[in-house]
Write a structure and sequence with these properties.
heterodimer; A: 202 residues; mainly alpha; 7 helices; 3 strands; B: alpha/beta; Rossmann fold; 4-stranded antiparallel β-sheet; 10 strands; 34% helix; ATP hydrolysis activity (chain B); nucleotide-binding (chain B)
């Protein structure tokens, strides 16, 4: 998430001081990504150093108000115009966990998948509930929050679908492993189909 | 022996269903315990062949278990004759099937009124209730259309109106969003959710996580057994931590 660009975009709207920026950011994103006020000030310092914002002075209440410079406005324009860069591929703890689980002996991959599925569905239930509640008493300011919720819903749904796929693949693999093991058994005794844990691939 | 409170609309007690016999017997459901209370929306998920549709058929008395008991509002379905079972289905249970099961030679309103009329409700009263159900699913203006004059999404709404017409206490839906685009699917979930909020017990079979997430409780079936359940927590701090930051 680019805090830098988000703050710049908010300053393009109108000059603001640090605390206002934080409140504005959290309101527009439904407090999905809480901002640390220290983070806001550090970012403002850097933006000022880079000539993208300038101090306008005190608002009379002891707050330092910042405004965007022409260079800052160009930076915001560039940010909106360019697609979001994918850090090559984004680090995904779940994918890493499963990739390691399938390659290590003694790990019950199916149990990992199911535990994650329950957790993901639970999150999806909460997002869906939040979306219904928000849509039911919609104010204009909630549109941004609805979009963020939709994004979370789609991401989580994709995660569950991917888990389903992982599981189906594991079942297929276990079945074909079971079949080839059965073919190799020369004395005619058929082995049980391989259960879904990595022990059977040793 | 479990206690069945008045709020319990559906109870499946150690229900098993086996198809075939001997070596070729296939166990579709094994010792399933599941209860759904009034006002509760339960989604059933699981891979194909896990027993989802068998569960729904047993819950609505369309099929009988090999062993175990099915109770709808404390009435054991095993004790009912075919006629009594049919009457219970018409009065208390609403179904939404994957393929709609609508009568093409009837209008939308006539399709919706059909279960009421079969049950002896006067035509005018049934018609009024049908219109009310069509209003709840958002298509009162299509009441006089025939099925071939409606889109798939509209037909599905008619099927849902038929399932909720009158005061159905148990609504059973089998992949009701199968053929629908995502906006229409969303509308279907809204209707089911509203019925549950109004006090009906709702059971939805689906493979779509996005739809299952509308439920209060998600039950996971695998090889005919319930292997897990997820209940919504509705905890705002959970929402924040799950958002990734």
């Amino acid at each position: 998430m680019s805090i830098r660009h988000s703050l710049l975009a908010l300053l393009q709207d109108q000059p603001r001081y640090g605390y206002q920026l934080r409140v504005e950011f959290e309101t527009r994103t439904g407090a999905t990504w809480p901002l640390n006020i220290g983070q806001v000030y550090t970012t403002l310092d850097r933006l000022e150093r880079d000539g993208l914002v300038a101090r306008e002075g005190d608002d009379g209440g002891g707050h330092v108000v910042y405004s965007i410079t022409a260079e800052g406005a160009a930076e915001v324009q560039g940010w909106f115009a360019a697609p979001v860069e994918r850090s090559n591929p984004p680090r995904n703890e779940l994918a890493i966990k499963l990739a390691l689980a399938v390659t290590l002996p003694g790990v019950d991959v199916q149990a990992i998948i199911q535990a994650q599925r329950v957790a993901s569905i639970r999150a999806l239930q909460d997002y869906t509930k939040a979306r219904r509640d928000t849509a039911a008493n919609q104010r204009t300011a909630d549109t941004a929050w609805l979009l963020v919720l939709d994004s979370l819903i789609f991401q989580t749904e994709a995660e569950v679908r991917w888990l389903d796929l992982c599981e189906a693949r594991m079942v297929q693999q276990a079945q074909s492993a079971g079949q080839s093991a059965a073919r190799k058994t020369s004395n005619g005794v058929t082995e049980d189909a391989a259960p879904l844990n990595a022990d059977n691939r040793r | 022996m479990s206690v069945r409170g008045p709020q319990q609309v559906l109870e499946l007690a150690r229900v098993s269903r086996t198809f075939g016999e001997g070596a070729t017997a296939v166990a579709a459901l094994r010792d399933v315990d599941l209860t759904i209370a009034a006002g509760e929306f339960v989604a059933v998920m699981g891979p194909s062949g896990s027993g989802k549709s068998s569960l729904l058929a047993l819950a609505g008395g369309l099929d009988r278990p090999t062993s175990g008991g099915v109770f709808v509002e404390s009435t054991p379905l095993a004790g009912l004759g075919l006629n009594e079972l049919a009457r219970l289905r018409r009065r208390a249970v609403g179904y939404v099937f994957q393929d709609f099961n609508l009568v093409p030679t009837l209008t939308a309103a006539e399709n919706v009124a059909l279960p009421l009329e079969l049950d002896g409700t006067a035509a005018r009263k049934a018609g009024r209730q049908a219109l009310d159900a069509l209003r709840q699913v958002g298509i009162p203006e299509l009441a006089d259309r025939f099925m071939d004059q409606m889109s798939g999404g509209q037909q599905q709404r008619v099927a849902i109106a038929r399932a909720i017409v009158g005061q159905r206490r148990l609504i059973l839906a089998d992949e009701p969003t199968g053929a629908l685009d995502s906006t229409t699917g969303h509308g279907v979930m809204e209707v089911l959710r509203c019925r549950a909020d109004a006090g009906a017990a709702v059971m939805l079979v689906t493979h779509e996580a996005r739809h299952a997430a509308w439920a209060d409780r998600v039950v996971f079936l695998r090889d005919g057994r319930i292997v897990d359940q997820a209940a919504a927590m509705h905890d705002p701090t959970f929402l924040l931590t799950q958002a990734g930051l």
